[in-house]
Write a structure and sequence with these properties.
- It is built from eight helices and no strands.
- With 169 residues, the chain is mainly α.
- 18% of the residues are buried.
């Protein structure tokens, strides 16, 4: 399995030689295009990372989680999952840190641990994905994409808790 990438690269080089393509020049052109994309996306990514860092460092995430916690508990959504639910669309690494914390404190076989694991696998880092893909395509107006994606994340979280409750309750 480790040889798959070298085999593909070798096959592409052999195919390029067979087709009489200047492989190195083509590679350099691809790298130039990649740098152009990075140059175009970098400001948006830096702004997103600063916003995520500010959100976490300011305590705003904890404040919002505490506001939501009573409502979540009232409808049967585990309170431990609220910070993860808030952070997952914004930061994959932050959500993974919360997942690890839930697994360490509640246990992997606990209801919260199972729900958190399913949520981690069924949701997306929405802001990152929208930033990357729309930025790479040069799209400035995201229209209804963000709302729809966040609604999908919310739905995935709710359905994860319901499914875990039904299957492993």
């Amino acid at each position: 399995m480790e040889a798959v990438v070298p085999i593909i690269v070798t096959a592409l080089c052999v195919y390029g030689l067979f087709r009489r393509v200047n492989i190195f020049d083509s590679f350099v052109e691809g790298v130039k295009e990649g740098f152009g994309t990075v140059k175009f996306i970098a400001p948006t990514m830096i702004a997103l990372l600063v916003a995520v860092g500010t959100l976490r460092a300011s305590g705003a995430l904890d404040f919002i989680a505490e506001l939501i916690r009573p409502f979540a508990e009232a409808v049967g959504f585990p309170a431990e999952l609220v910070p993860m639910g808030l952070l997952r669309p914004v930061s994959g690494s932050g959500a993974t840190a919360i997942l690890t914390n839930i697994l360490e404190n509640s246990g992997a076989d606990s209801f919260a641990g199972r729900c958190a694991s399913v949520i981690a696998g069924s949701t997306e880092t929405t802001f990152y994905a929208v930033t990357m893909y729309y930025g790479a395509a040069g799209i400035k107006n995201i229209r209804h994409t963000l709302f729809s994606a966040l609604l999908a994340d919310f739905t995935a979280m709710v359905v994860s808790v319901i499914t875990v409750g039904l299957l492993m309750g």
